Amino acid sequence: MRKLLFPPIVPNSLPAFDKNQKLRYYFKPSIANSMSEIKHLQMSIVRLDTNGSILTDTNSYPYDVLFKESSEIKEDTSKGFWYVDVPASIFPDSDTAYKVQIRLGETDISGMTTQQLGSVMKDYDKLSEWSIVTIVMPITVPDFGIQSFDTNIENRVVSTGHIFNGYYEARDPNRAETLSSYRFNLYSGDASKDSKTWKLLSTSGEKYIGITDRVNMSYTFPYELKENERFIVTLTIKSKNLYTSTKVYKIYSAAHPILEMFNSIDVVPNYEDAQMDITVRAKQILMKLEPGATVTYYKDTKEPNVSQYPNLKATHAKIDGSIISNNDISLTTKDGIWICQFKAMFPKYRESLAEIIAMPNIEISQANQTGDNGLVSKIKVGCMRINLAYPTTGNPNPAEEWEYRFVVRKEMVISSNGKEEVILAQNKVIRHSGAINPKQEYYFYIKEDNGSLYVDVKKTYLSTDLDTREVSKEI
Question: Hey, do 17-139 and 143-253 end up sharing a CATH topology, with the first three levels equal?
């Protein structure tokens, strides 16, 4: 008696996949069959919303079927499944669900014509029944990562206690591919080698995001990041439709520069309570300009009494707001590395990146020129807010939904006969949780090493009105 082919075993759905990448479709033969009996595979793909086939090109897909020869059927031993790859170009639309079914055949179809394939389609005794439906979806993949970090370079972090802040942004037209969960992992090992050789040191575990929760990915590893050691940090995200992706970052742990501090102590007699009231305020040392440097200040109506004397190593700085408690605002170059660090507050928001470029809150420049000609390096720092609310069919006037960001921009500018032309620019955007307090100090550490820009921003312990109340250091 002839052995029959039974329908293959397939999943009900597969994770969403990048619309620009192939679909890897997994299946298993029935327990009653072996792969040695299977000589080809047939696949049907229809839209979920219309049940219309997308395999309508009769030259490429005769009989609305995608044929796969036995040589195109591969085994994934790690998963215990077999698979075929489906080109992304087959799917006409992204962010749309499709239904996939397959059946297996005993006939070798290598080199067959369309007419011969038609005969195969009618030889039912040598074909299995169609499988159950599998739902698949090509999507516009989201943008995600760790703020201020770059996957292509070694990223510098503070020693133990660094907070890794992630970001996630859906890129599909309706922003429907929301975040479902994320995970931070810390490893020791060589990032250039296979991840199987890395040693897991610490993990955040799977952190789930509720459907109504705002995305706030942040984690501090309970592990000592010793100075001058190298680590690997990974961020893995999973979207609503189970699209999963991981980014790998090389980490170098080093301490921040030591900042000189001083204490001011006020002692006031309190005769009514028969005691002395003592107030201690800690501030960073204020230093005046080095010879030859200039600073242009815009009038700050909110804090007119704040001292404004940064120690400036650049040739010029423009400041809108108060730069206070500065030990060093510098743009110094040595062996391709420059460092700029300062404390500042931001009483005035900008509404767009273009506005920050045109009117930054802080601009620091260093010129290397003869007369009116030369090359100028500029750092522009600004604070902006963005309204993320957008109109929909049901709600053309949504409530405002503000997000606050710092922007640090490095520009290389050619100056010629009094005119400037930007020849190279790089932006770093740091998302801020909640509104930016105009009386809050922020510490900026900006570094460029052979073209790679690194930015770190932290809140200081004290607000700029010299209130001794301690606030969170982290953004």
Answer: yes
Residue 348 confidence (pLDDT) above 90: no
At 34, list the tokens.
């072996």
- Whether the CB-CB separation of 374 and 327 falls below 8 Å is answered with no
Domain extents in the chain: 17-139, 143-253, 275-463
How far from chain centre, in Å, is Cα 166?
6
Residues 6+ apart with CB under 8 A from 194: none
Distances (CA, A) of 165 to 26, 46, 240: 35, 41, 21
Structure tokens at 24: 């890897």
Report CA-CA distances (Å) from 444 to 169, 247, 257, 293, 430: 25, 25, 12, 21, 11
List the structure tokens of 165: 């802040």
Rounded to an integer, the average pLDDT of 369-379 is 70
Alpha-carbon 109 to chain mean position: 46
Which amino acid is it at 285? I
- The 8-class DSSP code of residue 435 comes to P
pTM over 0.70: no
β-strands 373-387, 81-86: how paired?
unpaired
pLDDT number for residue 391? 63
Q: Is 212 left (phi over 0), alpha (psi -120 to 50) or beta?
A: alpha
Q: Give the domain 17-139 fold.
A: Immunoglobulin-like (2.60.40)
Beta bridge partners of 429: 407
For β-strands 362-370 and 316-320, DSSP reports them as: antiparallel
Q: Tell me if 430 sits within 8 A of 405, measured CB to CB.
A: yes
Better-predicted residue by pLDDT, 266 or 186? 186
364-368, 383-387, 444-448: range with lowest mean pLDDT:
364-368
Return the pLDDT at 338. 67
Other beta carbons within 10 angstroms of residue 381's beta carbon come to: 25
HSE-CB for 436 with a 13 A CA cutoff: 26
Are the C-beta atoms of residues 348 and 299 closer than 8 Å to each other?
A: no
CATH topology of domain 143-253: Immunoglobulin-like (2.60.40)
Amino acid letter, 84? V
- Looking at residue 468, its pLDDT comes to 28
